[in-house]
Specification:
The chain is of the alpha/beta class. The protein contains 13 helices and 12 strands. The chain folds into 2 domains: 132 residues, Aspartate Aminotransferase, domain 1; 239 residues, Aspartate Aminotransferase, domain 2 (3-Layer(aba) Sandwich), CATH 3.40.640. The longest helix is centred in the C-terminal third of the chain and has 27 residues. The chain is globular and about 65 Å long. The structure holds pyridoxal-5'-phosphate. Pyridoxal-5'-phosphate (PLP) binds next to helix 5.
Length: 408
């Protein structure tokens, strides 16, 4: 099996490593940008400065905050590629989904269709909504390697005349694949079904993710690949249902229309919103987002290849994973059998690996099979993944063998 060549490392204009633009600990190995993101130092400095201004003159700060949030909302929408007049700021993708669930008019006895790739917390919200409706959730099974057409058909075949809402991931969390959200939203529209697209991972990873996407609601996190401070996300609602949407916190914007009513959130620290554009600018001025995306994708090719090859050399099995429609900077490598057979086991493995070895990695599980979900960003280099191979692959193989032999 041939191992790909790694892309040349990115550096800052002064020649220092890209990683020196972040404050990630030098002792840790950071190969999991996708879960919680990482904030450039320049953005942290700006956010701290904004917080200091808020703490110095709170009245001046809060009395003008909604206008400043409105202005930054326009900037953030420009980055995401959404219309600022249909884009609200929310703290995270979970909040965006919660807004939709809490705002949709009650429709008795109707169904919500989700997929078995859905993010657990967002799916649980759908289940709670269905209970409030006195209805049910139907789960479409999308095989891991399904083509976009097969994925589309699996979701639409699960819909019935009672289906009111489809909740579909743009990029799936546990399985790191793209789902055909444009095609699903178009088919749903024809059948009068509302769509909520969970694009939590998307901002920053793709240049114009909402182009030709005719969904009712779309949520995306700015604190993942766009590197904004945590607590920055968008809820995009292009259609007439946007009138129904109210923030989770009722505040003084209530008489306003969508999205302005989301610009007021009472006495809340919204410096994450105000500082987020600094991260977009940091990456744009140092490397350009196009170059950054190409780098992330080529590094992910390299990482996927070296890690899967290292496993295969020991197990004799194929650890490459066909996810049907892969993502530029998020990939799956199959773990040795016996590891991360469930979501809880995958999280336990993550916790063990970070606590004992300082390796920040994401492990996932789908249909009883465990995966390492790798992610790349501009601050990662090939040596991060070479180090993963050297330090963790032998242990994972050993733990996998132990788990297999412990089976009854
Ligand atoms: C697909 C998906 N949806 C929602 C979320 C939740 O994001 P947050 O915790 O920022 O609300 C995640 C987080 O990883 C995700 O991957």
């Amino acid at each position: 099996m041939t191992t790909l060549t790694a892309p040349a490392e990115l550096t800052l204009p002064n020649g220092s490593s890209a990683a020196s633009g972040w404050s990630l600990s030098a002792t840790g190995l950071h190969v999991n940008h996708g879960s919680f993101g990482a904030v450039p130092v320049a953005t942290q400095v700006l956010q701290n400065t904004l917080r200091a201004r808020m703490d110095a003159d709170p009245v001046a700060w809060f009395s003008t905050l909604p206008e400043r949030v409105g202005a930054v909302r326009r900037e953030i929408a420009g980055f995401v590629g959404s219309d600022p007049d249909t884009t609200a700021l929310v703290p995270n993708a979970s909040a965006g989904a919660s807004v939709v669930y809490s705002s949709l008019p009650v429709t008795r006895d109707r169904e919500i269709v989700v997929t078995d790739h859905g993010y657990g917390a967002v799916t649980m919200g759908a289940e709670r909504l269905a209970r409030r409706w006195g209805g049910t959730v139907r789960t479409a099974h999308v095989p891991l390697g399904a083509t976009p057409q097969e994925a589309h058909d699996a979701v639409m075949d699960e819909c019935t005349s009672r289906t009111r809402l489809i909740v579909i991931d743009h990029i799936t969390s546990a399985t790191a694949r793209l789902l055909p959200v444009r095609e699903i939203s178009a088919s749903a529209r024809e059948r009068g079904i509302v769509t909520l697209v969970d694009g939590a991972h998307v901002p920053g990873l793709y240049a114009d993710p909402l182009r030709d996407l005719d969904c009712d609601f779309w949520v995306g996190n700015l604190h993942k690949f766009a590197c904004g401070p945590r607590g920055t996300a968008v809820l995009v609602a292009p259609g007439e249902l946007s009138d129904e949407l109210y923030p989770l916190i009722d505040s003084w914007g209530a008489p306003l229309g969508f999205p302005e009513r989301f610009d007021s959130q009472g006495t809340l620290d919204l410096t994450s919103y105000l500082a987020a554009p600094k991260s977009f600018e940091f990456i744009e001025t140092n490397w350009g987002w196009d170059t950054a995306r190409i780098y992330m994708s080529r590094l992910a090719d390299y990482a996927e290849s070296v890690i899967a090859t290292a496993f295969s050399e020991e197990t004799g099995e194929d650890h490459h994973v066909d996810v049907g429609s892969s993502v530029n900077a998020l990939r799956l490598v199959r773990l040795p059998s016996g590891l991360a057979k469930s979501h809880a086991e995958a999280d336990a493995l993550r916790d063990l690996v970070v606590a004992q070895f300082g390796i920040e990695a994401a492990f996932t599980s789908f249909e009883g099979v465990g995966y390492y979900r790798l992610s790349t960003h501009v601050y990662n280099t090939a040596s991060d993944f070479d180090s993963f191979v050297e330090r963790l692959v032998p242990l994972l193989i050993e733990w996998g063998r132990a788990a297999q032999s412990a089976r009854p």
